[in-house]
Amino acid sequence: MKFGLLFILSLIGLTSLLDTINQLFLKSAINSLQVNLSANVFKILKFVWQVILIPKVWLGGLCALVSLCIWLFVLSKSDLNFAFSADSMHYIFIAFASRIFLKEKVGFRRWLGTIFIVLGIVLISIS
């Protein structure tokens, strides 16, 4: 790695946070619509138009774009194997954000599964 480990980890954490915010915006935007899709092309186009007009979709896209730019910088300064493994913070952020902001139920098994996924990725990244 060419850059400091703490700096790279901070940037990876920031991309995970921005991706989480993106997903929260998209989920809350889609929840605000009455989704009733069928094979009708006009209904699909109407739905797409409704989605495009929601400001949260644009804010989510902006978060995704900023996250992508930071991620590309991270990839230019660190190994892909390390960066992708460290990005497992995303799983934890999503679980917490879903619980706190969307009031979704996150059961014990889901928390346990998330912890095992993160531990597995950490084990892979340090091997």
Précis, in short:
The chain is mainly alpha-helical and 127 residues long. Helix content is 80%, strand content 0%.
Explained architecture:
The protein is mainly alpha-helical and 127 residues long. It has one domain. The chain is built from six helices and no strands. It has helices at residues 5-31, 41-52, 55-77, 80-86, 89-101, 108-126. α1 (5-31) packs parallel to α5 and α4 (80-86) runs antiparallel to α6 (108-126). The mean pLDDT is 88.
List keywords for this structure.
127 residues, mainly alpha, 6 helices, 80% helix
Mean pLDDT across residues: 88
Q: In the residues, how many domains can be counted?
A: 1
Class inferred from helices and paired strands: mainly alpha
What kind of assembly state do the chains in view correspond to? Answer: single chain
Portion of residues in beta strands equals under 5%
Calculate Rg over CA atoms.
Answer: 18 Å
What share of the residues lie within helices?
Answer: over 70%
| C-alpha termini separation | 16 Å
Task: Give a topology summary.
Layout: H1 5-31, H2 41-52, H3 55-77, H4 80-86, H5 89-101, H6 108-126
Helix pairs in contact: 1-3, 1-5, 4-6, 5-6
